Amino acid sequence: MTGNGPSFIEPLRFGRQSSSRARSAAKRSRIIEIAMHRFAENGYHAARVGDMAAALGIAKGSIFQHFGSKDGLFFEVYKRAVRSFPKYLDAPAEVRAAGFFHVLQYWLVRTEHLLREDWIPYRISLLGNYGTDLALKREINRFLMAEDPYGTVAFVRFGLDRGELRNDMDVEMIVSILDWTMERFQDALLTAELDPGLFRRQGELPEKKEARILQFLSILQRAIGIGEAAAARPRVALKKVSGGSAAGRGRA
Asked: Cα–Cα distance between 102 and 96 in angstroms, integer?
């Protein structure tokens, strides 16, 4: 009968460990939820970990035990916020059927609507892009490259399969161009909505915003698209420049 002992003891121990991990995961999730609101409302630097702990009724050290530092906490908050965003190919079927650039237009037009529906993750995204130090920004960039939360790679392959994008460019280059330009343009739209006085002195008509979106898409189409846009694109031969490369004029 003694040989049956472990079969009774081990499952109990495993059950306790599982229960402890579940409680720890639930606590982490609650901390992240409260931190999202605090960071969104106060900004990265003004948000205080002590205030978050007080709101949760836990010790400040408990938060550091789970996340290591304020940077570590914000990084987890940022990842949750970005993962909540829709991917490019989550656009309606009829929009996808219309083509690659129609999908881009769909999301750009909806940028401010998505902000109004739930401004917290978009505020967190802006803070991650512009309101943190370089060390944390480096971690954010690594996460974006590794996880591709917006599904940009799959979306670019969608455009290539449809014959709408240039096939003489490296896929990673198209992905990078799309990420860089879309991020900056959407950030401008979001910032204008969060702080209207920054971009609009007396408000901006929807027609003007729509025209700006169409202009942006026209430029992007000339850069990475084919078809009518490619036919209009001038062909320029690059020349060697004595005394160094023109790339030296770019950002360091």
From this structure: 7
Q: Please indicate, yes or no, if residue 3 is contained in any of the structural domains.
A: no
Q: State the DSSP string of 31-42.
A: HHHHHHHHHHHH
DSSP 46: T
**Is pLDDT of 245 > 60?**
no
Based on the fold, state whether residues 36 and 156 are members of the same structural domain: no
- 3-class secondary structure, 230: helix
Residues 51 and 132 in one domain: no
- Comparing CA positions, the residue from 93, 91, 225, 97 lying closest to residue 156 is 225
Q: What is the DSSP letter of 110?
A: T
Helix or strand holding residue 188 (H, E) = helix 171-194
CATH code for the domain in which residue 60 is found: 1.10.10.60
Query: What pTM was estimated for this model as a whole?
Result: 0.76
pLDDT tens column, 55-108? 999 999 999 999 999 999 999 999 999 999 999 999 999 999 999 999 999 999
Q: Do residues 48 and 29 share a domain?
A: yes
CB 229 within 8 A of CB 166: no
Domain of residue 113 covers 69-232
Helix 60-67 × helix 70-83 angle, to 10°? 70
